[in-house]
Design brief:
Layout: H1 4-27, H2 34-38, H3 48-51, H4 55-79, H5 84-101, H6 103-112, H7 116-138, H8 147-167, H9 173-191
Helix pairs in contact: 1-4, 1-6, 4-5, 4-7, 5-8, 5-9, 7-8, 8-9
């Protein structure tokens, strides 16, 4: 069991992360100052520094939390799949659904895409995807192909198509999923 102090610390950190995500999503990294983050909470201004050294540290923490959640959802969907076609479809659907379900997180990503910190997180998803593709290949459920290229291409399409999908009104998760799935299944079939 965790005590009251630990629960308060966890709640404060969560409040700061959510406020930072919103501020960076609205204003962008360069325009945000720590005061913009703290104003979005009920916390005293000095509380920020009990959790983060500066805005760069909280920015990185938001990226890490967002990336971890997206990867968790996508990987869970892929691992429950019953073959390559379902693997591709389930992974894309999970990612596109994540974008639509959490507009504040996607606003953060879209506004700050291209930052070195976000670019540094994308390879983590590609590495996990390559590992999962390797498992399919070992089971004979995948034609022979360059798993590294495939994983990076799938992540790149997901990021770019997800950004485009989120700008549509209303966002079309199923349409984006069908397009990305068809693109990869056709490409792998003809490229192998």
């Amino acid at each position: 069991m965790i005590g009251r102090r630990e629960r308060t610390k966890a709640a404060n950190r969560t409040a700061l992360l959510e406020a930072a995500r919103d501020a960076f999503g609205e204003l962008g990294f360069d325009a945000v100052v720590v005061r913009d983050i703290v104003r979005r909470t009920d916390l005293a201004s000095g509380t920020f520094y009990n959790y983060f050294d500066d805005k760069q540290a909280v920015f990185r923490a938001v990226i890490d939390a967002t990336g971890a959640e997206a990867r968790r959802r996508v990987r869970s969907a892929r691992r429950a799949a019953g073959g390559f076609a379902e693997f591709v479809e389930a992974g894309y659907r999970a990612y596109f659904s994540f974008i639509v379900e959490d507009p504040a997180t996607f606003a953060f990503l879209r506004r700050n895409l291209g930052s070195a910190e976000i670019d540094a997180v994308l390879p983590l998803g590609a590495a996990e995807l390559a590992d999962d593709l390797a498992l399919l290949a070992e089971r004979g459920e995948l034609p022979e192909l360059d798993l590294d290229y495939c994983a990076h291409a799938m992540v790149a399409v997901g990021v770019e198509l997800g950004a485009r999908m989120a700008e549509r009104e209303p966002p079309d998760v199923e349409g984006a999923t069908r397009f990305a799935t068809g693109l990869f299944l056709e490409g792998v079939t003809h490229g192998a």
